[in-house]
Protein 1
Amino acid sequence: MTLKVNSEAGAGLCAGCLSAKAFNGLCAPCRSELPVNHWHCRCCALPLAYPSAALTCGDCLKFPPPYNRSVIPWRYQYPIDGMIGRYKYHGQRTFARPLLADFCNHLTAALSTPDVPTPDLLIPAPMHPRRRWQRGFNQAQDIAETVGRRLDLPVAATLVRRTRATQAQRELNREARLANLRGVFEVRGEVPARVALVDDVVTTGATVRALAAVLRDAGAHDIQVWALARTPG
Ligand SMILES: [Zn+2]
Ligand SMILES: [Zn+2]
C-alpha cells in the first residue's frame, strides 16, 4: 500500500490505493497489509516474535503494570504508522476511518470473550490544553468517542487532566520517564470500578502506567488499555 499524498479519497474509495472496492475505507488487499499484533504480551500487548497464549513479557514480569490487560490489534509499523501519523498530525480522518471501524469490530469480538470484561467507562489519554490547541483535537478522545458510540459505552473526556506537557517518552530512559510523568495526571471526579484507557499508540507504556496508577488510586479495580497500535519495543 502506498499512502496517497492527497487523502481526499472520498467516502467510497480505499484510503490506500483509491480503489473503488473499499469496505469501511480500505480495499481487501490494502487491509491485508495492516500489521496485525498476532503474538503479544498478554498484559501490555508488546509484540512478541513467537506464539504463546500465556506469555508475559520481561518488563511486565519485572515491573507488573497497574492495569489488567491491553487490547491492541496492530503493531506500530508500516503502513499503520503512516496512517495514524496523517490522522493525528494532519487531521486526515480518511486514514483513521478504516482503523476505527476495524478497531470497533476487534473490541466487540474481544468483549464477547470472558477474558475481557466490559468497562463501565472509557477514559481517553488526556492531552495538555496547549498541545490540544496546537493540534486542534485530541486523537485519543476522538477514538474513545467513536468507540463509545459504536459499542454504546460512556466516555469521560475530562475525568483525568494532564497538568503539564511532557517531553517525548521515547527519548528517555526508565527512571527519566517515571520522573517526567510524576504528578502529571490528576483525577477530578468519581472513577467507576472498571475502566478502559483509550489512546492511539502505546509506545513505552510509561504513560498508560502513570494513568492507570492514578485511576487505581482513585478506586478503579479493573483497568484495561485500548489502543490502535503498539510499538515493537
Ligand atoms: Zn486499497
Ligand atoms: Zn508486557
Note: The longest strand covers residues 194-202.
Protein 2
Amino acid sequence: MTSVLAVKNIVVKRGRRFRLQVDEFAVEPGEVVALIGPNGAGKSTLLTVLACLSLPDKGELFFLREKVSKGNALAVRRQLAVVFQEPLLLDSSVLENAALGLKLRGQKTGAKDRAYTWLQRFGVEHLATQNALTLSGGEAQRVSLARAFALEPKVLLLDEPFASIDVISRSTLIKEFKSVLSSTKTTAILVTHDFQEVLALASRVVILDQGRIRAQGTPRGIAAHEIWGGLAGAQIPPMPGS
Ligand SMILES: Nc1ncnc2c1ncn2[C@@H]1O[C@H](COP(=O)(O)OP(=O)(O)O)[C@@H](O)[C@H]1O
Ligand SMILES: [Mg+2]
C-alpha cells in the first residue's frame, strides 16, 4: 500500500538542545494515528513536519511517494488540513471563517455552501452569521473542524484539538468527530494527552519521548505502557468475552 505521508531518517532541531530523530514513520490511507508523549517530547515538532509547515533539517518527507521539497511544499500543504489546540478564527462571521480555507485555496464558487454543510455536520450552523470571536471554546473548535473538513484533506493533522474544551462538551464532540472521520474515511494524525481520546479515535498509537519514537501499537496494546502511569490501563473496559 502507498503511504499517504512518510518520513525517512529525519532530524529536526529546535532551539539549542532539542533534536527530533525519526528513522521511519508512515501513515497509511484511512489510519487514525495518535501521537502521544510527555510535554516537550517533540509531538508538535513532528506534526509540523508532517503538515509540511517546516521541512526537516535532515532526511526526507514523502507525500504519496513524492518527495516533499521547497519547490512543492505549498502544493502538498494544500492537500492537508491542520487543526490546532487554539482555534485560529478571524474577526468575521462563523460562515466566513468556515469558508476561509477553501477561499485561500482559490475555491471561490460554492465555498460558502460547502462550509455551511460542514457547520451543519458539526451542529453550529445556527451560529453562521455570528462573529467567530464571540464563540465559546467548544463552538470555536467545531468551526475549526468544519473549516478543515470542508477542504476534504488527504490527511487531517490535529494538535491537541480538544485539550481546552470542558470535559462534557469534549466527550460529545469526540463522538461526533469520530463519526465524521469514519464516514469520510479521513486519514488523520492526532496529537493528544488523553487516553480516552486515544481509545475512542485511534487505530494506532505512537509514543514519542525525547525526540524519539519509543513504542507503537494498538490503543489496547499500549494501554499498559508506563507513559500512562498505570492509570489508563485500569480504566480500559475488558474485551468482550475476556
Ligand atoms: N521555536 C523553538 N525554539 C526553541 N525550542 C523549541 C522551539 N520549538 C520547540 N522547542 C523545544 O523543542 C522541544 C519539543 O517541542 P514540541 O515539539 O513542542 O513538544 P511537544 O509538542 O511534545 O510538547 C521542547 O523542548 C521545546 O521547548
Ligand atoms: Mg505540543
Note: The pocket of magnesium ion (ligand 2) is lined by residues 43-44, 159 (CB under 6 Å).
